[in-house]
């Protein structure tokens, strides 16, 4: 098997890791004039009746091009256009889209995060192909097999069939606000920390891990670091680089069968903020913007963790210094009120008894020298991510997010309770690093 890349689209193969990996996305185009590729794809592979989802902003940006190309390809079109206010993907909205698209042969979403997720949600339920026309290089979800939706007010990532085709025009995405592209750069670079979380979770707790998804990134990280300042100056070629990187990041999740390669402790911090926003109406920021600031924090934790001297890791002192189970449970109740039972259940799946914790710490101490070597290829210095986000026009400090400072501070300390996935936030706390 060749190294994984764009040619892997539509393939599946048995991997030495034991899994059969497949990439059911059939077309992914990042090029000027991508609306024509979308229409060509629809002409060749989709039925006669298109359902096109957009909002007033994204329709103004890409609507004319996509709709007239689809019409030229002989497609009948039913449209749904949401208003100007930012929409939150909820299961209720997903069901609304599903009902509206029910009589159509395929779905097309013109837009970024939420619109794409709503189309993927509805397409999955209807078993109809979905084609995406991104209008911003703002996140890596276009090519993923999950949708982020609120279920009863709680942010959840639900598995779904990935979009069949993604058609992104860098010239169109370049018209999005700089903050959105900076968010995309941050969402991509977060995999430096998250893929390390994934690898170390495997080494310490035995969870599933495979080396292959990282092949998508071999040279991509350098390209994105190089493109970041050019994006800040409006260079069109740099938008193409960022869009391609985001597509590859999504592929890595589809291949792994979970978000683990691209979602670790930094994403938990962002999800904590989003969940707080849903619960008590506090403001949140763009997904990638929050993830970027949190990535700088998490890479700093990794730097300190891997620099520890094994001889100075005092296992018994560390085991004694962990917060008690009662105090954690009380903390979760206070944070999450009506949804605390769900959070308690997530935490219960990964918490360790004092004995298991001591043995994990001793395993870590023994593995530390080899972990340093194994993680070297993925980890970036926090300053490299900070410089890239800043150069592309995004915020790098918690106080520059549109998030209350106390919510961000709580997220850093307590986001590890909201999900059963073992991340750097757990390891840092176990090692007394904050
Ligand atoms: Zn993300």
Please outline the helices and strands.
Elements: E1 12-14, E2 20-22, E3 27-30, H1 34-45, E4 49-55, H2 56-72, E5 76-82, H3 91-101, E6 106-110, H4 113-126, E7 130-133, E8 146-151, E9 154-159, E10 165-168, H5 170-173, H6 178-189, H7 191-205, H8 220-232, H9 236-256, H10 265-280, H11 287-306, H12 315-320, H13 325-336, H14 340-350, H15 354-375, H16 382-391, H17 405-414, H18 424-430
Helix pairs in contact: 1-2, 3-4, 6-8, 6-9, 6-11, 6-16, 7-15, 8-9, 8-16, 10-11, 10-17, 11-16, 11-18, 13-14
Bound molecules: zinc ion (ZN).
Terminus-to-terminus distance: 43 Å
CATH architecture of the largest domain: Up-down Bundle
In total, how many beta strands? 10
Helical segment count: 18
Q: Roughly how much helix do the residues carry, as a percent range?
A: 40-55%
Characterize the biggest β-sheet. Answer: 6 strands, parallel
The side-by-side strand order for the widest beta sheet comes to 3-10-7-6-4-5
What is the string of helix and strand elements?
EEEHEHEHEHEEEEHHHHHHHHHHHHHH
Describe what this molecule looks like in 3D:
There is one protein chain. By secondary structure, the chain is of the alpha/beta class. The protein folds into 2 domains: 6-176, Rossmann fold (3-Layer(aba) Sandwich), CATH 3.40.50; 185-208 and 258-430, Dehydroquinate synthase-like, alpha domain, CATH 1.20.1090. The protein is built from 18 helices and 10 strands. It has a 6-stranded parallel beta sheet, with helices on both faces. Strands 1-2 form a two-stranded antiparallel sheet. Strands 8-9 form a two-stranded antiparallel ribbon. Strand 8 (146-151) and strand 9 (154-159) form a beta hairpin. The longest helix has 22 residues, at 354-375. The two termini are 43 Å apart. Bound molecules: zinc ion.
